[in-house]
Structure formats: C-alpha cells, structure tokens
Request: fold
Amino acid sequence: MEDTVLKGSGNKDALENAESIMKRAIETASDFLTSKPLSAELILKQLLKCNPENHQALQLLGLVNHRMGKNSEAVEIFESALEMEPENADNWNNISLAYGGLQQHEKSIECLEKAIRYNPNRYVFYNNIALQYRECNRYDESIASLEKALSIQEEPQIFINLGGVYGEIKDLKLAKECFEKSLVLNPRCSAGHLDMAYTYFLMGDWSMGFKEYQWRFDYHPQLQHYLRNYDADRIWTGQSLDGKRILIYGEQGVGDTLQFCRYCRLLKEQGAYVILHCNNALNNLLERFDGIDETINIDLVHKSDVEFPEYDYQCAIMSLPYLLAVPSISGEPYLEPATTKFKEQIQSKHGNTFNIGVVWAGSPAHPSDNKRSMQLKNFKPLEATEGVQLFSLQMDARKRKYGWQTYGIGEDQLSDFQPGNTQVVDYAEDCDDMQLVDLTQMIQSYDDTATILAGLDLVICCDTSVLHLAGAMGVPCWGLIPYNPDWRWEIDGNTTIWYDSVRLFRQNERDNWPEVFVRVKEALDEKLLA
Reply:
C-alpha cells in the first residue's frame, strides 16, 4: 500500500489551515486568560501537543498557571520558553511574575532587571519591578522605577501605584498628588477615586473622604451583588423619609456595620422605619438599638430568589455619612448589652484581679489580616503582671493560610491580585503555657460578646469587630493598630473620633508588635497603680 503524499497547493492549503487554527486557539486562550483560565489551559495544552515549540502558547500557559496560583508550574513553563528565546524580554517579565507569586521577590527582581536590559523602553517592566521592590520594603527604588515608567508613558494605574508607595511610607501629600494625576488622565478611574478617599480619611477630611468613597461600588466586584438585588429605582439619595420604610444594608464586614449603624438614628429622626440587612450574629444586639426597627438576614451570594420586606428606599450603610452630610462625628457610646449580670459572675470568681479580654487575630478573609493580626505570645508580659487575668475572646484561633500574588501581563493590565501560594501562620504558637480563661464557649452572637465586654475592666485587641463593639458600648478598649492603619484610624494619634473609650497603640516600626506591647505593658502598669 502506497503512502499518500500531499503535493502542490493542497499541501500549502493544509499548512495554512493548521496555522489558522493555531492562531485562533491562541486568540481564544488569550481571551479566556482572565475569565476562564481552566478553559485557556485546556486549549493551550492541546495546542502544545501538536506543536510543542510554540513559544507564544508556552508563554500563555505559564501566565494561566500563574493566574491560578500554580506558580511553581508556571516557573517551569517559563524556563522552557527561555530556553527557546533567552533574550526575550517578555519571557523574563513573565517568569518574574511567577517568582513574585512564590514570594521570591528578590529572584523576581533579578528577572525583571534582565527584562529591562533586553528591552529598556517598556514601561510595564518598570512598573512590575516597582511592585516587587515595594514587597521588599525597598521604597526608594520602587518610587524611582515608577517615575521611570511614567517618563516613558503616563498611565493612571502607574500614578496609583506610585501614590500607594507614598501612602505606605506615610507621605500623604505626595500620595494625594499622584491620585489626583491619575484622575486627570481618567476622571472615571474608580481605583484612583477610592485611593483618594482613603487618603482623605487618613488625613482626617471625612467629608471629602466619604464623597470619594461612593466610588467603591465601581471598584469592588464583590459589591455588585448588592446592586443586582436591590431595586435601583429606590436608592435613597436624600429624599424625605417621613413615613417611609428604608432598607439599609451592611455591605462589608461586621465591624463596619457596628461602626456605621449609629447613623440609623438620624434616619429615625427623619420619620423613617429602618430595616437593617445584616449578619445574623448581630440580630439581637441591633434590634434593641433605638435607631433600628427591624433586622433581616438574607444570603445574597448563594441565593438566587431573594424576597425582601417592603421598602420605599434602600441604601448602603457606609454611604450614610455622605448622604446625611453629618458635620461632625461623635464618639459617644450608642449600643448596650442585653444584661449586666456577667459583671456579677466574673466578680464572684475573679473579683481580686484586673480582668482583660483579649483578641489577637481578626478574620483570615480580611485582605490585610496578616498585618493586623499578631502572635498571642506578645500578650505574655501582660499575663505575667501581678493582679491581672486575661480572658480569651478569640473566636477563631486556628492556623491561618494566607495567599496572594501580583499579576501583570502587559500594558493593558498593570496590576491585579489573585489567590496564590499559601503561607501557614499559627498565631497561638508557643502559648500552651498561658493561663487564659477561655470565654468563647459562651459566645453565640455579638449580643453574647457585648454582655461579656460589659463585665470586663478592659479590652485589648487587634483591629477587628470586637474593637468596634467595645467602642460602640463605651467599654475601655486598647486597639492595636499596624504601621499602615486602616483608613478609619487616621494616620497618627492615640485617640479616635469614632469612639471616646478607645485608646490606640500604633506600630512605630513596620511589623514590630513586640515594641507595641512594651508600651502597652507600661500603660497597664500605670493603670494598675492609679
């Protein structure tokens, strides 16, 4: 039997057809890179079976693996691409992204230096190396690289990144200037507006801050489900509320709801019936609050058919300060426990000690939890203080997994954050010898927590919901704040306008909690002697 041989135009047509198919496969995989990475991976693997030396497919497959957090695999793929084209600047940029995802920032920097050497005119390379310098706390080099990127091409995101670096070193004036420049280039850049809001907040300009903070819905995709489920035609923008039903929703964390529910009183004063959509752990506590008539709990993320009680208007809780145009913020307490009997119980067992409730870690889902949470062993000097008893209010003491990566594939996508490689942290490590009284078995809701807080002499905690609850109740509380604080605590100072009973202890040095606890111990000794 003779072999069939393709000849002439037929052979050429088949070749062109194959090239056309591969080109379409590359285009489709590229389109799927962000939205459907698994589909993109499947397409690229099939293409590489047919053509193992397709350099563009290798690059894309490496980026897909990086996107999905499989950075070790991404490094291997990019190494194969580099073997084919060792002087390809994009190859070095791409492998740097994978090393960054593995938290090997110095290695990532080395690769980006090579990318810049082979192509010194790509502003995205300078942007990407600046992000890695920032992770290594090499802020001067990060700033210089971003300025170099801007000298090649001015892009809103690069100004935002530069402003972010200035913000991290607490130069809010220069940070604000950068965000303003990003908005000159793109007045509807939601990231620029939101970073501007945070800058105003940290500077104490709450009016301008809350105005810019309205852009959060355009920026955060996780807030879109609220916009889809609430009637957009009934959004409250300041209309008369006399005799109207208004549905307020806590759009973010429990701490945010506790902090901003105070504004519901002002809605009541305007004649509104106030319904609060909140976490069910807040029900009993907030239904007693005189600013709220009714609470509801509906899971908008996992439920498709949602029925709300009748309402005339709806509004996000953190928009209330802006819409109500409140001239000043009061730090007076506004929440109360269901009972004060726990005070009697604790006095009967621990009447001879100064009783302190402690929380050392927030929710691991918080994007900055690894910065705000701390090792429990930092509390050991407080526990060893004569006449002091510590009580644990820590609801989740398990080991934490943190994961992240920086992702940037080109001029059209300078930065993005996706789940990446994980780091396991045990905040209770080396603390088996501590004699804390565990009160968490008593806690089923924030009403229970409020009852406990009312019976303690002091609360010392990281920046989490317990801090807000203590402040809202007027319970003495010492808040432990990281070097780069959350926007609500401003940039410096040991007091906060939000809560009269809260004293802030800030990191003077990045990630240095032991030094903070030296000052906490000194303050506790002074308090015990008073």
User: Anything to note?
Assistant: The radius of gyration is 27 Å. Residues 137 and 168 are 9 Å apart (CA to CA).
